[in-house]
Design brief:
Order of helices and strands: EEEEEEEE
CATH architecture: Beta Barrel
Strand order of the largest sheet: 1-2-3-4-5-6-7-8
Low-confidence stretches: none
Mean pLDDT: 92
CATH topology: Porin
Shape: elongated
Radius of gyration: 20 Å
Length: 187
């Protein structure tokens, strides 16, 4: 990535001295909508994250994640096919900025919160082997790489390990987000 030039001179360098950071993007996650369903499902949606940088490296953040998808269900007389399910969660945690330079930054994060699972869009979820509608704990632990486009704008790719407890045990899934970071304010 080459430094962009304007009519006056080269573009301002990326300094990471921002106070706030807002991320918005698309999210992909896999999940299992029932403890005994034979297959996992893929969900797609979006997420928004706001981070307040209290030091150059550490910032607390609040995130919303919403994903929707369809899942195969147990054979039953009510519905055969793929049933709709969704997860909507609010998480809070921290982000740590690791190695960084003019072109990119590596971040680490851990967010914990609650997610509301809605499983009765199609029919009675218990007949199909799905969970009932409920609010349960969820966590997203991972990292992200920010590829700087301008001083205050970057493209982010963020893989996560998702931990949830909708059933009788904690389960692990994979999530990946991608979108735009907007850095505002000055510390």
């Amino acid at each position: 990535m080459m430094a962009q030039k304007s009519k006056i001179g080269p573009a301002a360098p990326v300094t990471y001295d921002n106070k706030w950071e807002i991320f918005g993007g698309l999210n992909f996650q896999n999940f299992q909508a029932g403890q005994n369903l034979p297959k996992r499902m893929n969900l797609g949606g979006g997420n928004v994250l706001g981070t307040y940088w209290i030091t150059p490296r550490l910032g607390p953040g609040i995130e919303w994640r919403g994903v929707w998808g369809t899942t195969p269900v147990k054979p039953n007389i009510v519905f055969n096919g793929r049933a709709l399910a969704s997860l909507n969660g609010v998480l809070a945690g921290a982000q740590y900025r690791g190695p960084k330079n003019q072109y990119a930054a590596l971040n680490y994060h851990a967010y914990f919160g609650a997610s509301y699972g809605k499983f009765d869009y199609t029919a009675d979820p218990t007949v199909m082997g799905m969970y009932t509608n409920r609010m349960k704990p969820i966590a997203a632990i991972g990292g992200s790489v920010d590829l700087n486009y301008r001083k205050n704008i970057a493209i982010r790719l963020s893989p996560d390990l998702i931990l949830e407890h909708f059933g009788t045990e904690t389960r692990e899934f994979i999530g990946v987000s991608g979108g735009v970071v907007w850095r505002i304010g000055k510390r």
